[in-house]
């Protein structure tokens, strides 16, 4: 699209102030989404008793004859605006299970809670950042390679180095096992939670099938891709009593010990025909820490987990959609990621692994689960948070909805994205201003909180 065409569309919007104001109102309601859904149709409110239409809306009188709806993408690489909303909801979801609120009792803040990080095992030596006592060290000291090369790298890789996560020897890296481990990660997590319950039952001295009568395990987890192309898990695990009250006879130490032991012992059988060993297990790198300390507060844990809820398979979003290996040449992927995609596609063609549907999940390198999952009792739901936001927006606009009325809707999909390049430019500019305003507001809140804590410390030191 040429610059002249963009200017033409901008002038066309400005030529009708009333239509432009309504268009801007619609665009603002989407959060200045980068790829909104365009709908046409109507909706009407009908009194349930009389059948009388109390209110009606149609897109016939709207700008372009359509209504704009946010795409709702969670990935920051696909839609920065919608991903901010998703990340905020994820933060509230995690925080509600840690400190209460949003329909969750505030007493959950006193329950035993741990923050858990589980990683994948090694599938071959890769370039990595290494530190000892806070001092950066060379990537890899070196050892003989079965394929005739010396596996060594004397560089100190800076953060963000494209080499991080790539194999030191591609022949030594087990691509097949990497993809199948990703495919087994969800089942491995499920078996880990079962193992935690069994260890809690042993701690209580009751049969494992009766542990639910004494304690309830609640959790929320997200998965993140490491640079080497395997997922690892960050999770909040909380221990409640059977009715949601405090657990009897167990504290955070008991929970941490049970989670650690379960993660060390848990395993999931490889899919039939995998031909790569006995079972999938977690890697040696395991971190289980109580929540509430200086390095794992409710706020930091919730923010840490919410951040990963909007990440993509790769940092640039090139694998945000299903694809065929023939498309890889147009994506400019690093060879390591491209080979993982091809391996997933090839494994998906094997009859013994057809049940995994790996070709459908080649763009996620074999991982087939959801990015964020939780147990039913951990906290509220995304649906409840979204419904509350819709209600709040309606109340702020002064709208009153009769709960006894019935909504009759007739909507049709028109297209995705902005109608023209001028609208896209206006939306992108407004979205950038919104991001900047939020950044300043966040910094102001941080400065205010820091100043308040400093004043409190000074007052305590000089009563």
Task: Report on the architecture of this protein.
It is globular and about 70 Å long. The protein has a five-stranded antiparallel sheet, with helices on both faces. Strands 1, 2, 3 and 15 form a four-stranded antiparallel sheet that branches. Strands 5-6 form a two-stranded antiparallel ribbon. The protein has 463 residues and is an alpha+beta fold. The chain starts with a helix and ends with a helix. The protein folds into two domains: 142 residues, no CATH class; 186 residues, no CATH class.
Number of helical segments?
9
What multimeric state do the chains show? Answer: single chain
Cα(first) to Cα(last) distance is 67 Å
Low-confidence blocks of residues: none
Tell me, briefly, the overall form.
globular
Mean pLDDT: 88
Q: Cα-atom Rg, whole angstroms?
A: 26 Å
**What count of structural domains?**
2
| Structural class based on helices, strands and sheet pairing | alpha+beta
How much strand? 15-25%
Strand order of the largest sheet: 13-4-10-9-14
Profile the largest sheet. Answer: 5 strands, antiparallel
Number of strands: 15
Helix content: 25-40%
The SSE order reads HHEEEHEEEEEHEEHEEEHHEHEH
């Amino acid at each position: 699209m040429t610059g002249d065409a963009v200017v033409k569309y901008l002038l066309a919007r400005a030529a009708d102030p009333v239509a432009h104001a309504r268009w801007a109102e619609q665009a603002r309601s989407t959060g200045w989404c980068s790829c909104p859904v365009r709908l046409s149709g109507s909706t009407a409110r009908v009194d349930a008793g009389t059948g009388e239409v109390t209110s009606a809306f149609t897109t016939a009188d709207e700008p372009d004859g359509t209504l704009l709806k946010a795409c709702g993408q969670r990935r920051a690489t696909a839609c920065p605006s919608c991903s901010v909303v998703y990340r905020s909801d994820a933060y509230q979801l995690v925080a509600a299970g840690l400190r209460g609120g949003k329909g969750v009792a505030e007493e959950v803040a006193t329950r035993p809670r741990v923050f858990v990080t589980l990683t994948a095992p090694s599938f071959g030596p890769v370039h990595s950042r290494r530190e000892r006592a806070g001092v950066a060290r060379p990537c890899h000291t070196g050892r003989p390679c079965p394929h005739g090369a010396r596996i060594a790298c004397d560089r100190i890789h800076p953060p963000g180095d494209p080499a991080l996560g790539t194999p030191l020897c591609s022949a030594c890296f087990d691509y097949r096992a990497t993809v199948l481990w990703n495919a087994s990660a969800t089942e491995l997590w499920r078996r880990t939670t079962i193992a935690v319950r069994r260890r809690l039952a042993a701690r209580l001295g009751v049969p494992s099938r009766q542990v639910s009568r004494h304690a309830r395990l609640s959790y929320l987890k997200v998965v993140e891709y490491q640079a080497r192309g395997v997922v690892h898990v960050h999770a909040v695990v909380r221990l409640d009593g059977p009715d949601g009250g405090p657990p009897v006879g167990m504290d955070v130490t008991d929970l941490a010990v049970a989670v650690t032991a379960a993660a060390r012992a848990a395993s999931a059988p490889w899919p039939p025909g995998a031909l790569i060993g006995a079972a999938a297990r977690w890697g040696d790198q395991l971190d289980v820490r109580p929540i509430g300390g200086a390095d794992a507060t409710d706020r930091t844990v919730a923010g840490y987990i919410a951040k990963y809820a909007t990440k993509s398979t790769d940092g640039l979003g090139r694998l945000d959609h299903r694809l065929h290996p023939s498309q890889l040449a147009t994506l400019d992927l690093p060879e390591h990621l491209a080979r993982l995609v091809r391996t997933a596609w090839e494994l998906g063609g094997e009859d013994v692994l057809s049940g995994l549907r790996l070709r459908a999940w080649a763009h996620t390198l074999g991982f087939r689960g959801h990015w964020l999952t939780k147990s039913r009792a951990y906290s509220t739901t995304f649906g409840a948070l979204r419904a509350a936001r819709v209600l709040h927006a309606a109340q702020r606009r002064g709208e009153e909805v009769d709960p006894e009325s019935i909504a009759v809707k007739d909507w049709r999909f028109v297209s995705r994205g902005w109608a023209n390049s001028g609208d896209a430019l206006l939306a992108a500019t407004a979205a950038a201003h919104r991001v900047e305003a939020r950044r300043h507001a966040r910094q102001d809140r941080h400065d205010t909180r820091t100043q308040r804590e400093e004043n409190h410390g000074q007052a305590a030191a000089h009563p």
